[in-house]
Amino acid sequence: MIRPTPAIVPQSAVLALPRWALLLLCLAYVVPGFVGRDPWKSADITAFGYMRELALGHTAWTAPLLAGLPPDTEGLLPYWLGAWSIQWTSGWLAPEMAARLPFMALLVVTLAATWYSVYHLARSPGAQPVAFAFGGEANPADYARALADAGLLALIACLGLAQLSHETTSYVTQLTCTALLFYATAALPVRTTGPLIAATAGLGGLVLSGAPAMAALLGAGGALLVATTAAETPRPRRPWAAALFALTLASAWLAWQLDLWRWRIVSADEAKEWDSLARLLLWFSWPAWPLAIWTMWRWRRQIGSHEPHRHLLLPLWFVAVSVGATVATRPADRALMLALPAMAALAAFALPTLRRSISALIDWFTLLFFSASAIAIWVIWLAVQTGVPAKPARNIARLAPEFVASFSAVQFGTALAATLAWCALVWWRAARNRAALWKSLVLPASGATLGWLLLMTLWLPLLDHGRSYRLQMQAVRAAMGDAAPGCVATYGLGRSQLAALIYHGGLDLANGQQSAGCDWLVADAAASPPYASVLPAREWSQVANIMRPTDRNDRVVVLRRTPAAQR
After folding, report:
1. Helices then strands (H, E): number in the chain?
2. Out of 60, 197, 337, 347, which could bridge 291 as a Cys pair, Cβ 3.0 to 4.6 Å?
């Protein structure tokens, strides 16, 4: 019996996206944001601080501490990866760049795992397009490759992925491990060894990254779908589903042994506002979410049929679990990021059913939005460099005082080449009526990559000035004079500030038990209760009150023990 399917795809619509173009797009997306910047506040430099302490041997690998404080997340895997990389590249690579190398590789693995996941889902029987009476329908392998290309483009196009995927945090490892588990459940039982290795890495990585509940839910649901949904080969499914379920139980046991099970459900007092969540869902996963909804509508008969179809139910399960975590836990944007690979897969299956008018609407909206964004980025860069136009230049001077503009030929050349490539792509898309399935996502993915690359080249010095602690912490060190200050006590500082003081300020921070003998103290001016109400006024004198250049509310106070107290 012919299964009902809304996909009507001729062979002419599954033209291959040139591999060089796809690889170049991925390269332009991955590298910017990892290269040439300081660690940024807050999660980025906090994670780097723990990595550096581990690499220098200042703390235990199983219980890392930063100025006496443990991490605020239970997962240790990202800290280990960064610390190992710092140790292996010591002497020839800056520590902050060395710590990013594993996370750059993790982002590459995420993109590759998403591509192969969509490819295997598109090969499943229920995903195949309608067979034509006289032939000419899309070849299954070519059809799967075209949808895999589209799924990868949809992932890159998601607006919320860019910044968070270029940080050195546990959420990046969770994203990669989720993508690996998604690939494993999509490929079983067609492939066995590779998917089982990916499932082992994904489940174990989720546990060691502080997300054991996600590992249990995704693994158990994936095993059930592997056992009950049809694949493109008649190989037995249940043994491999049982193996995946056994790996899920093993990951749960590992989390129990390491005491990683924690409930992070927000309480009623901390409940999130629905309008804030709606805004997050609206922009974070754009443009994948409207295409995913279109897929659910056009493929609704298969979703509700008695015969389960894994190309729809599997990504729906991964999206549902991640969106549930977004609603029930914090931080919401990090939890929602785990849904993006599966949401991109759903978006890919919308393309065989899109009408030409909808495809044209996507193209025009994308063209206008990203072209306007690119022009704005260039205009503001020009204003920073030359003072013309005057109004943007004044606004930048007000928002980023003390910023000194600098010109980089490498950054300018890279940005100019990317902009010219965008213009050529727009001309190509407008001049030719391409029938390829992936055509509707070429402009969104390329536009998102262009915007990210321009920000990380033209605006990088300005963003570094605004989001780095370097200037503030160097000013703290300068306030203590030329002589080595010895141990420095702290009060009310967050982990990111502590990490910045250690790295940028080069200070030896004491933990709470060691602070009694320190002659210097750095306090957060906004700490509660205020430092003035806690510290004896006769023992400490204020030396400096230093704000971060782009945030008047972010101030630290430098205090010195009075000579009388020292005696």
Report:
1. 25, 5
2. 347
